[in-house]
Amino acid sequence: MTGNQTEPTDRESGDWRSELRDSLGVCGLPDQQWADFLAALEVNHGSVMRLHRRWIDDAKLQCDSDGLRAGHLGPPVPWYHGAFRHGGTWQGRRPADTLRYAAGDFFLQDAGSLLALAACGADTDELAGSLVCDLCASPGGKATALVEAVGESGFVLANEPIRSRLAALEFNLTRTGSDRWAISQKDPEDLASQLTGQFDCVVVDAPCSGQTLVARGKQSEGSFSARQVRHSAARQNRILDAAVRLLRPGGKLIYSTCTFAVDENEAQVQRIVETTSMVPVQLEALQDYRSVTDGCYRLWPHLHDCAGAFAARLDADGDAMSSRDEASPPHGRDRFSSAKRHKNRRDRLRPRRFEFDPGDWITDDVAGLHQRTIIRGDVAMCVPLEAPDWVPLIAAKLPELAYCTGKTWKPAHGLSRRAFASVTPVQTIQVDDARARRYLSGNVIDCALRGWVVVTWQDRPLGWIKSNGSTGKNHLPVPYRLTGG
Ligand SMILES: C[S@@+](CC[C@H](N)C(=O)[O-])C[C@H]1O[C@@H](n2cnc3c(N)ncnc32)[C@H](O)[C@@H]1O
After folding, report:
1. Beta bridge partners of 316
2. Averaged pLDDT for residues 291-310
3. 57 annotated among ligand-binding-site residues
4. From the CB of residue 327, how many other CB atoms can be counted at a distance below 10 Å?
5. Which of 143, 276, 373, 409 is the most buried (most CB within 10 A)?
6. What is the pLDDT at residue 68?
7. What is the DSSP secondary structure assignment for residue 220, as one 8-state letter?
8. Exposed e or buried b for every residue in 356-390, given b needs 16+ CB within 10 A?
């Protein structure tokens, strides 16, 4: 795409601007905004920092001022509590090179992607204790916020059908420090057949023509073509129909895209309203971003300093859904019968005794108290006891507990990161900034302890070392290391 701006009257065939203008349909911009919109489309708006909820005061959802403001956080993102602009560097470094980022204090994402999270109340207590499905989850910009939002009594199933995208999702979920998640790799229709009527909230951040991503070089001009829009809309129809089936009566559906085309946005919502008992929800907090269709919200690059975004909120009419689902078994264990039939034979769900002793690494009795442990091949994973029965049967990946090399079991990196939540390490070593940076760069660090030790920085767990009483060998997996020096 070139930087040339085109007048609204330019309609020669094949021009991406006219295709874009056509695709906006009823959401078309007034002529006087068109040039600004086109110019803003080509600007890279940069990412914002979404703070982990543990750094936001629970009672008032006020930003914890401990060092965050001093680190030169910019203005807050108006549509999402706890997200801030940062102006390119923070604490003199790129945000992704800071110790706070390595420790999981914040995530970096486009401000527009926070619109969908605001629509489901992920920045409030609305989702606390909920069972949430993120149906199109990788790389996890939304799933990580959802995991934080459901807290210690909820659970998130992060589904991503494309295998090659699971690693990024797992990486980001591990950074949350929570064990209240599982990853599935299912086609949405298959998932809906297995888990009909289970979820309090389903988030569909749908694959789309990606018209907002052109400035970031992630999408070509082809994303503006009517053909591409039609192709995406057809896929969205299928995903949305599956999403509705996954909802329990009274549950909420969040639909979002990163495209402008009305056929992928408002028209999808309209279709769902007309063909199901879902009801659009007007959200007081998002009134400034209302679109032409009830329950729909938009951000524009020239108005809101972000790539642009669409989000909608629809709630399931409890009564209508109950009668629709009368033929289905009630909410509860029976629902999982079909999933149970497909029980994964690789799982050893309740090993008679561990082939390793997690008590060498953590003080909690992982087996008996809070977790079910599942061993698949060389990896031991865990599920909170209160999570639904179907979780191990559906999950492609779960929070890791340990892994085996040769005959030796070693603690998984994810276990060290959960030192915030369910896990208490037997041994920790507190390090200052310089040693933290050395550790996060993959180096050994001095340590007078022996055995497995969690390295902590400002009380935040960073990862494991195995120490011989003088030197701690670095066990931080490469993807979690800092690259900025
Ligand atoms: C817009 S991205 C999701 C971004 C993610 N929610 C986040 O916030 O980081 C859409 C995702 O949907 C996945 N996807 C592709 N086809 C799909 C399908 N048929 N059903 C569900 N998800 C699909 C893509 O692989 C991609 O990871």
Report:
1. 278
2. 97
3. no
4. 6
5. 143
6. 58
7. -
8. bebeebbebebbeebbbbbbbeebbbbbbeebbeb
Distance, in Å, from the CA atom of 442 to the CA atom of 424, rounded to the nearest integer, reads 23
Going from N- to C-terminal start, the domains of the chain cover 110-323, 341-412, 427-480
Q: Atom of ligand 1 at shortest distance to CA of 257? A: 1
**CA–CA distance, 47 with 86 (Å, rounded to integer):** 8
Atom number of ligand 1 nearest to Cα 113: 8
* 3-state per-residue secondary structure call for 123-179: CCCCCCCCEEEECCCCCCHHHHHHHHHHHHHCEEEEECCCHHHHHHHHHHHHHCCCC
* The predicted structure's pLDDT at residue 319: 66
Instruction: Given the residues 120, 208, 258, 382, select the one marked as catalytic.
Output: 258
* DSSP secondary structure, 182-206, as one string: EEE---HHHHHHHSTT-EEEEEEE-
Minimum CA distance residue for ligand 1 atom 11? 136
Query: In angstroms, what is the span from residue 256 Cα to ligand 1's centroid?
Result: 11
The pLDDT assigned to 365 comes to 54
Q: Which amino acid is at 171?
A: F
DSSP 292-326: SSTTEEEE-HHHHSSS-EEEEEEEE-HHHHHHHTT
Instruction: State which of 136, 159, 201 you would mutate to test the pocket of ligand 1, scoring each by most atoms of that ligand within 8 A of its C-beta.
Output: 136
Atom index in ligand 1 nearest the CA of residue 208 equals 1
Contact 195, 204 (CB under 8 A): no
Q: What is the mean pLDDT of the chain?
A: 85
Residue 258 annotated among the catalytic residues of the structure: yes
Number of H helices, E strands in the chain: 15, 20
How confident is the model at residue 7, as a pLDDT? Answer: 39
What CATH class does 427-480 carry? mainly beta
pLDDT at 343: 42
400 has which bridge partners? 381
Q: CATH 3.40.50.620: does it fit domain 110-323?
A: no
Sign of CA dihedral 159, 163, 165, 169: positive
Q: Which residues line ligand 1 (CB under 6 A)?
A: 113, 135-142, 160-162, 165, 188, 205, 207, 235, 239
CA-closest candidate to residue 70, choices 98, 39, 30, 36 = 98
Residue 320 clears pLDDT 80, i.e. is over it: no
User: With contact defined as beta carbons under 8 Å apart, do 169 and 143 qualify?
Assistant: yes
